[in-house]
């Protein structure tokens, strides 16, 4: 079993950002892997940049931590100089400057989300390479592959805060079910004019999808229960 | 036009002069010497009153045990200690360097060091070397904001956790923690759990072995329990003691201790005056 514990720490990841009527909801799983070993099963991939802007990190753990630390520092200075809270667009742009100008050395995809008084709730996706795209909803990381079709069907304009959060939790949970590199718990951050709310959904409390088993205390219970049917063509 | 050569004064930094020659030798078939790695099991956990760090004591050079009783728990500050796995030289160098930086910072600010300061200094250094400084660290300490435990990977990423393991024996140790850790452990429960996790690494991982070192850090106090447990004693020791073969006559015996004990006596008297 080749675990390769020396592999760089990467966040397999599923990260999501969704706008709703009045703000944004950011969501992420919590698995950080080194090769085939889960180095941290409860990591927090949604990092604060300012009071009103947060970023979801994916890709190389080291690269994304360093980029968000730099941008937090720049935004702090910018806020002091400006005399007002920084806008989401400026935060996204600063991330983009670092990501684009160092594209050869960095390997990190980020989703910036927040609320400001000029534009309201906004989501900006900044994938590998350093493009910045303003989107009503964005997903990233290895688990996002399983969510493109889901979001096309499920995202609606002018959702309420509760609907948006439920959508995010459902999406991350679906991705965790199918992507080996995503797992653990679901963390969400809701940002609107009133402030920021952090929520936490433990992995065993999520809805079960197709062929997923209930959490068991003993292997004997699983062995004695009827097994899933073998795959048929 | 005369070609004159002159000595360029040595600039700082790495000298690449021998790289071509080394590559040529490797191509010719020379096996380059492997560096001293600490195979290692290192762990840390947060208990009720602070942080407990643990480590094994085996340092390996390829398949050989180079040091049977090395110290892997490094001092960073009076209230912060750091366990190191990976290349022994790298972990020593990086922890010593950050330890000095922290001391200078303490003089400048007039305050006790914070764990997050050590974390930022370490992660900045390791990230700038892009993973080539092979040091995987478990950093723990208690400062004015409370107890903290962090893991730092060679590429510069960090995690903050209530319990953590690193090194080749990390899987063995993590299985013990995942089974038995709970919040609010007492000091004795915590030490017992850490010792169990390190023993799991010592007995199940080839890169870890020998003794268990433990360091308990609480608010305002630290205890470095060197060789807390020695589960691998040398069982068969010759009772004759040391002797020469084939009836060699010993003419003279001189024993020079390698570590000198120096006694410092303070001379009380008047201060020097001009």
TrEMBL record, chain A:
The lineage of its organism: Eukaryota, Viridiplantae, Streptophyta, Embryophyta, Tracheophyta. Gene3D superfamilies: Glutamine Phosphoribosylpyrophosphate, subunit 1, domain 1 (3.60.20.10). It holds the Pfam family Proteasome. It catalyses: Cleavage of peptide bonds with very broad specificity. Belongs to the peptidase T1B family. It is found in: Cytoplasm; Nucleus. The active site is at 13 (nucleophile). Keywords: Cytoplasm, Hydrolase, Nucleus, Protease, Proteasome, Threonine protease, Zymogen. Component of the 20S core complex of the 26S proteasome. The 26S proteasome is composed of a core protease (CP), known as the 20S proteasome, capped at one or both ends by the 19S regulatory particle (RP/PA700). The 20S proteasome core is composed of 28 subunits that are arranged in four stacked rings, resulting in a barrel-shaped structure. The two end rings are each formed by seven alpha subunits, and the two central rings are each formed by seven beta subunits. The catalytic chamber with the active sites is on the inside of the barrel. The keyword Transcription does not apply. This is Proteasome subunit beta. The proteasome is a multicatalytic proteinase complex which is characterized by its ability to cleave peptides with Arg, Phe, Tyr, Leu, and Glu adjacent to the leaving group at neutral or slightly basic pH. The proteasome has an ATP-dependent proteolytic activity. Component of the proteasome, a multicatalytic proteinase complex which is characterized by its ability to cleave peptides with Arg, Phe, Tyr, Leu, and Glu adjacent to the leaving group at neutral or slightly basic pH. The proteasome has an ATP-dependent proteolytic activity. It comes from the Eukaryota. InterPro entries: Ntn_hydrolases_N, Pept_T1A_subB, Proteasome_bsu_CS, Proteasome_sua/b, Proteasome_suB-type. One of its GO terms (molecular function) is threonine-type endopeptidase activity. GO terms for cellular component: cytoplasm; nucleus; proteasome core complex, beta-subunit complex. One of its GO terms (biological process) is proteolysis.
UniProtKB/TrEMBL annotation, chain B:
It comes from the Eukaryota. Keywords: Cytoplasm, Hydrolase, Nucleus, Protease, Proteasome, Threonine protease. It catalyses: Cleavage of peptide bonds with very broad specificity. It holds the Pfam family Proteasome. The keyword Nucleotide-binding does not apply. The keyword Cytoplasm applies. GO terms for biological process: proteolysis. GO terms for molecular function: threonine-type endopeptidase activity. The active site is at residue 40. It is found in: Cytoplasm; Nucleus. GO terms for cellular component: cytoplasm; nucleus; proteasome complex. Belongs to the peptidase T1B family. Component of the 20S core complex of the 26S proteasome. The 26S proteasome is composed of a core protease (CP), known as the 20S proteasome, capped at one or both ends by the 19S regulatory particle (RP/PA700). The 20S proteasome core is composed of 28 subunits that are arranged in four stacked rings, resulting in a barrel-shaped structure. The two end rings are each formed by seven alpha subunits, and the two central rings are each formed by seven beta subunits. The catalytic chamber with the active sites is on the inside of the barrel. The proteasome is a multicatalytic proteinase complex which is characterized by its ability to cleave peptides with Arg, Phe, Tyr, Leu, and Glu adjacent to the leaving group at neutral or slightly basic pH. The proteasome has an ATP-dependent proteolytic activity. This is Proteasome subunit beta.
